[in-house]
Amino acid sequence: MTNKEIAKQFQYLAEIMELHEDNPFKIKTYQNNYLTIRKLPEPLSDMSVDDMGKIKGIGSSTVAAIQEMLASGTMQALTKFEEKTPPGVQEMLHIPGFGPKKIRVIWKELGVESIGELRYACNENRLVELKGFGEKTQADLRQKLDYFQKSQGKFLFAEIVAPAEELLQALNLALPTAKISLTGAIRRKSNIVERVELIIAGGEDISQIFENELLVKTGQQEAVIFAHTKDGIPVTIYPCQPEEFGSKLFRYSAAEAFMNAFLEKHAGIDFKGLATEAAVFEKAELPYIAPELREQAWGMEADSESLIAVKDVRGVVHAHSTWSDGLHSLRQMAEHTKSLGYAYLGITDHSKSAFYANGLKEDRIVQQWHEIDLLNQEFAPFRIFKGIESDILNDGSLDYADDLLAGFDFIIASVHSNLRMDEEKATQRLLRAIENKFTTILGHPTGRLLLSRQGYPIDHQKIIDACAANGVAIELNANPHRLDLDWTWIPYALNKHVPISINPDAHSTGGIDDIKFGVYSARKGGLTSKNCLTSMELTDFEQFISAKK
């Protein structure tokens, strides 16, 4: 181990001890060890034990720890603390500028144990009321988290699409006669993307895009060029001639499963050397297949023309206000929703069990209903529905009495606590909630946070079957951290005639825009507007939720 590596181990030990509020004297000692060792000119690995003991500030226990690290790569003192610290909390300690004291508050008071949960807590304004935090601290932390996650090698589609489109525009300016398109997973609008992929066709010398530092070239394998943006986003470029642009674009826009099925079905047909994608489909005697559907073999049979579009969504269902943990007032949420052209808003603040999110107790619900009544008089024909995101408790029950549940226009039932469940427990918990006569929509079914929390395992078929039997819709939570229900289960839900509700889970007016990410994911599953609950016109939506009353 190098001096730098050894020093960092002491630094990390000091931080994890501070996280657990351990002996402050020892913490200070390890912090000083870090400062001393990182400045040493001679490698510790070349020193004798006696020489180490002569270094000012290095005591016998520190020398023993150094010897242990040189022999094994770690030290027992650190291992002891790692064993009682969740891996996700340990990962937080590596976020620059985010110290152990603040991490401890979030871990102990909010139960946050991963980077993804922390980021989601920021998005839901959970940190602003904590001691030592506030809106400015929360905003600063969100920026730190963005940077940290970008360095981990995978990106949410929502995070990478804007810089990808900016890069595309810049390349079009730099290579005005070339034909350029996004391709790969980002063109399929996959939930998670590892890199930006581009097809560039034309006679221009593309080396200029590296000379002007638009991209930094990192390598080349045959005709494929590897690079990254100035912000470190990986980029793969497939150069080709204009006459083969369509063939290459189709090939690289398809996932392996789709492409294998396509080639097997059209064995013996040469699809090389085609200038447009339209020519590929014409030669295959197939209608155009949207890129989102080019994931699995069944995508060849789907109807691209009927896929849901963002403009098809008529209502904003699942939104939070300052009545619970939202950033904007009920009036602001309604005004903004109406200004965007939507016909209705389903306000669903958190229920009383979500104490961490200022969940609504019974007396506050009555007050909120009164405000909704007044706003509906003012905003008509735009309609605000009285909803709630009711917590599914550990036994599967909802957290209000039946007489109060009956007063809501609709209810989204969601799990927010006790997430560590096996499949049987999680499935049974959801089944009981679905069978509750007041449940209208099952919210984010697995509780996952993409790139951060896998979510609890459930028997999707049983859950979808139960929704079909009980007239319950399933949410596709459009928050790009969730996108839950996963799109791969949409075909099964459609087969069972279960409506999919594309919901933004908006905690601010800006959060309503997340609907588009839900639509992109829904298209991958073949969802059409007629199968989408939130594509219903106002009267049809009223009829659907009334059927549960």
Strand content: 5-15%
Work out the helix count: 23
Q: Care to count the β-strands? A: 14
Distance between the termini: 67 Å
Radius of gyration computed on alpha carbons: 27 Å
List the defining traits of the structure above.
549 residues, alpha/beta, DNA polymerase, domain 1, Beta Polymerase, domain 2, TIM Barrel, 3 domains, 7-stranded parallel beta sheet, 5-stranded mixed beta sheet
Can you describe what's shown?
The structure is a single chain. This protein is α/β, with parallel strands linked by helices. The protein has three domains: about 5-150, DNA polymerase beta, N-terminal domain-like (DNA polymerase, domain 1, Orthogonal Bundle); about 155-305, Beta Polymerase, domain 2, CATH 3.30.460; about 310-545, Alpha-Beta Barrel (TIM Barrel), CATH 3.20.20. It is built from 23 helices and 14 strands. Strands 8-9-10-11-12-13-14 form a seven-stranded parallel β-sheet. Strands 2-4-7-6-5 form a five-stranded mixed β-sheet, sandwiched between helices. Strands 1-3 form a two-stranded antiparallel sheet. β10 (about 385-390), α18 (about 400-405) and β11 form a beta-alpha-beta unit. α1 crosses α5 (about 75-85), α1 (about 5-20) crosses α7 and α16 (about 330-340) packs parallel to α17 (about 360-380). The longest helix has 18 residues, at about 155-175. It is globular. It starts with a helix and ends with a helix. The model has no long low-confidence stretch (mean pLDDT about 95).
